[in-house]
């Protein structure tokens, strides 16, 4: 199996849940402490050895390209001031990976966004990272997924145990156990099932490592839930018919995940990450304890 080097990050969504903040600012650029959410995702890809990143964008997403480009005027100003610490932090984003961009044009769902990556990806296996899920760098989920794909072939999805009453918010996997405690074989996938119809409590979270055979399946996939082309539907086909390009495995993730796709979860992610920072954590935790004690 070839070593996976390419990552695809869909970033064409309108971010309507965060209006009016996202009226002129891409939701992916909203700060999580002091970095935009999208930078955490690119850092994760780079840490897993994926040094070629394709971002699927849309209208009003130019700020994404600017963030991962060099800003010579700002760098010169910081150099003149002798502010080496901030200079390094500004340059980090442009040194992470080789960045590419393509517009989705007509946003027709995650499956369609992935299909837009075909000319760039070609016939190589590749990773897909969704920006709403931030995975703690101390829990190298993506590296584990690429390891499984390179050994077993086919595609790999990230799974996480969720409460039964929440499963309708996710794609849900029917699975069989393997000899490895954190790896399962996926036998079926259902997009956002009703709790009583869910085949398990294992939800698909926003990390995928895909065989290029998924492109041919996506081209034949009819619009599903919400009138969109669902990646889950294509993976369901690969899971039930391995001749198409299966098998499909799942890595059951039990680490730290920060959800930034919901306003409440976004705020909780900021608090959790700020508390764990060495430079911010001690003072912030002291303030938080006092606030909780006196205000709540």
What does this structure look like?
This is UTP--glucose-1-phosphate uridylyltransferase. Residues 6-270 form the Nucleotidyl transferase domain. InterPro entries: GalU_uridylyltTrfase_bac/arc (IPR005771), NTP_transferase_dom (IPR005835), Nucleotide-diphossugar_trans (IPR029044). GO terms for molecular function: UTP:glucose-1-phosphate uridylyltransferase activity. Its EC number is 2.7.7.9. The strands form three sheets. This protein has a five-stranded mixed β-barrel. Strands 2-3 form a two-stranded antiparallel ribbon. Helix 3 (72-81) packs antiparallel against helix 4 (84-92) and helix 10 crosses helix 11. By secondary structure, the chain is of the alpha/beta class. It is globular. The chain starts with 5 loop residues before the first strand and ends with a helix. The chain is built from eleven helices and 13 strands. 35% of the residues lie in helices and 23% in strands. It has two domains: 6-261, Spore Coat Polysaccharide Biosynthesis Protein SpsA, Chain A (Alpha-Beta Complex); 262-296, no CATH class.
Quick overview of this protein structure:
The chain is of the alpha/beta class and 296 residues long.
């Amino acid at each position: 199996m070839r070593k996976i080097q390419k990552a695809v990050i869909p970033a064409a969504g309108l971010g309507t849940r965060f209006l009016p903040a996202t009226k002129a600012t891409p939701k992916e650029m909203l700060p999580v402490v002091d970095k935009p959410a999208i930078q955490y995702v690119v850092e994760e890809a780079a840490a897993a050895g994926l040094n070629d990143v394709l971002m699927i964008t849309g209208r009003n997403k130019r700020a994404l390209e600017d963030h991962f480009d060099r800003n010579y005027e700002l760098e010169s100003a910081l150099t003149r001031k002798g502010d080496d610490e901030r200079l390094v932090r500004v340059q980090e984003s442009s040194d992470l990976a080789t960045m590419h961009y393509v517009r989705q044009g007509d946003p027709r769902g995650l499956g369609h966004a992935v299909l837009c990556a075909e000319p760039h990806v070609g016939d190589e296996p590749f990773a897909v990272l969704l920006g709403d899920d931030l995975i703690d760098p101390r829990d190298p989920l993506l590296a584990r997924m690429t390891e499984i794909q390179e050994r077993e072939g086919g595609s790999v999805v990230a799974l996480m145990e969720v409460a039964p009453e929440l499963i309708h918010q996710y794609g849900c996997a029917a699975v069989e156990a393997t000899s490895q405690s954190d790896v399962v074989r996926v036998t079926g996938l259902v997009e956002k099932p009703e709790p009583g119809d869910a085949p398990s409590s294992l939800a698909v979270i926003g990390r995928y490592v895909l065989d290029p055979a998924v492109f041919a399946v996506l081209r034949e996939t009819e619009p599903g839930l919400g009138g969109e082309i669902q990646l889950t539907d294509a993976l369901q086909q690969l899971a039930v018919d391995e001749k198409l390009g299966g098998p499909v495995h799942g890595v059951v993730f039990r680490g730290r995940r920060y959800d930034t796709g919901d306003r409440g979860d976004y705020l909780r992610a900021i608090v959790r990450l700020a508390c764990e920072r060495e430079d911010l954590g001690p003072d912030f935790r002291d303030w938080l304890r006092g606030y909780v004690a006196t205000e709540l």
